[in-house]
Amino acid sequence: MPLGLDTITVLIQCLKIWMNGDNGDQELEFRDIFDAVINLYRMFESIKVGGNSNVQLRNTCRLRLNEMKRVYGNDLPNASARIDYSDLYTQWSYMYVYMLRHIHLVSYALDDTVGNGILTDPEARHSPTVCMIGGGPGTDVLGLSVHLRKYGHKAPLRSGVYVLDKYTKWQIGWELLHMFLPKRYQDGIPQVSYRGFDFKNNELSVEQQQILKKANIVTMIKSLSPVAAWLKERPKLYKFVIGPTGRPTSTVYEWHSVFSILKHMKKGAFLLYIDNRTGPQRRILMDAVDCFNFDKLYDKVLYDQSMPTSIFSPKANQFKREINYNPCTVAGINEVILVRKK
Ligand SMILES: C[S@@+](CC[C@H](N)C(=O)[O-])C[C@H]1O[C@@H](n2cnc3c(N)ncnc32)[C@H](O)[C@@H]1O
């Protein structure tokens, strides 16, 4: 196959990064993002939300942190163990424990798909329209931005960044965090629009369909596992159509929300999925992928992928001691799948 101009551009970029040494700048990106999470906590302290003293604030956040670890530490074993993300302190606790971990995972996975991933598509790398399914905290787009910046694509994401999530109050958490992000990220992600979406509704609203039809990058990062046990039980509805041979054949007509998401994605759009290996979520996704015309570009298991501790600034290390709680730095076993609709 001849080497296209796009592929050559990506190869040159890879070569430059390799020659200049890899992760220096990226570490700075992670540091700055995590510092923003700390600064958000400092803001809670200074404005004393709800008249809470600093001790009350710390106790509240520690309770939320423990709850978070209890639920996610066990791979969501039962349906009742869900977290309500409407509460701002719960949102902050998630950002503190898991957000950086997942941003790192997203950017790492995208870096690994560089030869055949989104960088090979001019529209997706210069001005992507992004739809994050269950992307409440903004993790997915931050990971994407770290990746794009690493490869020299620093244009603001102005074509549209959308979150479809059960908890739209994440928008408050995102907007507060956004104020503390480095200016390059404030400018780089000028606006994120939140719309309600629940994996438990089989079909998408017209507005959700329109968002998906526009997106050239769709992400599903750690959002399928919490609902996978439920989705697994959903029945398929079939309809009969006359096939090319003139004989009736059956096709899936209606199923669960993952099926609907893939159905409404536009041709050429990428879907990045990352989630825990244990659980039925991979099967749910791949069964739905098989109903449509997708190219599988990447399918890999990442084992205990860990972040270097140098990712934390002196300020962050001081805060970790103060709150006596460590953010998650090791990712466990995750599956990364990148597919593209044909
Ligand atoms: C573990 S967090 C992952 C967030 C982000 N993608 C990340 O990787 O950091 C799970 C996300 O799924 C959302 N969520 C939970 N249940 C949902 C449901 N039934 N439908 C849609 N989103 C849901 C949560 O609000 C949250 O944003």
- Number of self-contained structural domains: 1
Biggest sheet, spatial arrangement of strands: 3-2-1-4-7-9-8
Q: What is the CATH fold-level name?
A: Rossmann fold
Q: Which whole number gives the mean pLDDT? A: 91
The first-to-last residue Cα distance is 19 Å
Strand content: 15-25%
Low-confidence stretches: 17-22
Question: Measured on Cα atoms, how large is the radius of gyration?
Answer: 21 Å
CATH architecture title: 3-Layer(aba) Sandwich
Approximately how much helix is present in the residues? 40-55%
By secondary-structure content and strand pairing, the structural class works out as alpha/beta
What is the strand tally?
9
What does it look like?
With 342 residues, this protein is of the alpha/beta class. The protein has one domain (17-341): 3-Layer(aba) Sandwich (Rossmann fold), CATH 3.40.50.150. The protein is built from 13 helices and 9 strands. Residues 17-22 have low confidence and may be disordered. The structure holds S-adenosylmethionine. S-adenosylmethionine binds at residues 85, 98-99, 102, 134-137, 139-140, 165-167, 197-200, 221-223, 226-227.
Task: Indicate the topology.
Blueprint: H1 5-19, H2 24-47, H3 54-72, H4 88-112, H5 122-126, E1 130-133, H6 139-150, E2 161-165, H7 170-180, H8 183-188, E3 193-196, H9 206-214, E4 217-221, H10 225-232, E5 237-242, E6 248-254, H11 257-264, E7 270-276, H12 281-289, E8 294-303, H13 314-323, E9 333-341
Parallel strand pairs: 1-2, 1-4, 2-3, 4-7
Antiparallel strand pairs: 5-6, 7-9, 8-9
The structure holds S-adenosylmethionine (SAM).
